[in-house]
């Protein structure tokens, strides 16, 4: 491999490692800029669901609906106990990335349930492998008829860079719905080759982890499989790439299974393809904070892009507008920063996007002319009494109540910790906890979450966030805000500034022509475009924006 890496003490043979102590495992760190030299590969093959399109979660929900209904009926008939399908662990282990009949069979075998295979023409009411698979397909197609599929902006940008560099691009999937999904997402023109479930059926190809689908894609592109890069989010897909001896297997971890992807053969795991880029020579390069240009080096180019565009300035709070302090309750906004925000908001959209509770961040900033997003995007508010609450979040309030109470009791003996209850999340701060006890905080959080799968763990600087297990974050909140303001068109420019891992969700969605700026105090993989040094540098940038964009009203 052309990658030089820092091995992990916990995984000395792994190709990537993590940055930080035992409670801060959230960045994959590579010590070399070059991930793969152009002379080593001719084409990049992309899985569809979860890599190109944000449909893996839709599939997971459809599988859960199918299996829960079936398991409930099965338990009643057998006089046994109903145990729900785990849409995280069991989906990844038995279903993800496989043809749907293989997924049905694999999962039922894991539960000791035997069904006849049946025929592909079986109706969805038939109690066969094919019948259940067709029922699940019906659930997915029903969703697709009522919703638009969403393509990941970072993947689209990465593919466009590959095409510009003259690198061949193909897409594969065991799904028979590929054409409909790509068309719905508006990306059907990106790929010169498609291999889908219909192709697999016609050629009688075995499903992943067999590399047959990859071999077929490479052959039809006219390239050798060992000169192809494979991008996958599924364990079975990563296994197929490794068994096929591909030039590089890039794993996409959009959940919490990076370690498993590495163990099964991924050479590199990233959160999103916006963390990779293509250099002028066609090399696949890791996007790292240490290699980004400071904003000031590109200020002339940014001023040019501003042009006559409508401008939205979006900012994190802690670590961006105010320095990180040992007691989160004392992170007060400096008067000079408030004045700069007020000046900008008089002519442009300004929003503060925070993990803090909405009421808390509004009080700290204290400006009615500014938009706010609190609790990592679950609730938003702005001028003119505008507001939005993520509609499904209210159903998780009892779970958050339980988290607050249970973790309070579990951590009572850990000095220095603080539990901050927000409306739609619970933050467990350990900045003032002795390093020797920091692992105890994480252990308590993990134990609670293991018994409460309706909540998930988010990571930040010296804090764990317990949030509803919903497909929602700061990035989705920013997309909603910009769409509400009519700022998704080419005449708009959004600039986001943040410092924390939670801000990466925004960096991933704000692709060209929008820009993301990270406050960098270490060298880590990022989806941002530029850097600023610290909160003082942010203040200088806000004042520069006011002067540069003056008179270009929204």
Shape: globular
Biggest beta sheet attributes: 9 strands, mixed
Give the spatial strand order of the biggest sheet: 12-24-23-22-13-14-15-16-17
- Whole-number total of structural domains: 4
Radius of gyration equals 24 Å
Number of E-type strands = 24
Number of helices: 18
CATH-wise, what's the superfamily of the largest domain? HAD superfamily/HAD-like
Note down, in words, how this protein is organized.
This protein has four domains: 155 residues, Rossmann fold (3-Layer(aba) Sandwich); 91 residues, no CATH class; 177 residues, HAD superfamily/HAD-like (Rossmann fold), CATH 3.40.50; 76 residues, Alpha-Beta Plaits (2-Layer Sandwich), CATH 3.30.70.1020. The termini are far apart. It has 554 residues and is α/β, with parallel strands linked by helices. The chain has 18 helices and 24 strands. It has a nine-stranded mixed sheet with strand order 12-24-23-22-13-14-15-16-17, sandwiched between helices. Strands 6-5-4-7-8-9 form a six-stranded parallel sheet. A four-stranded antiparallel sheet has the order 18-19-21-20, covered by helices on one side.
In short:
This protein is of the alpha/beta class. It contains 18 helices and 24 strands.
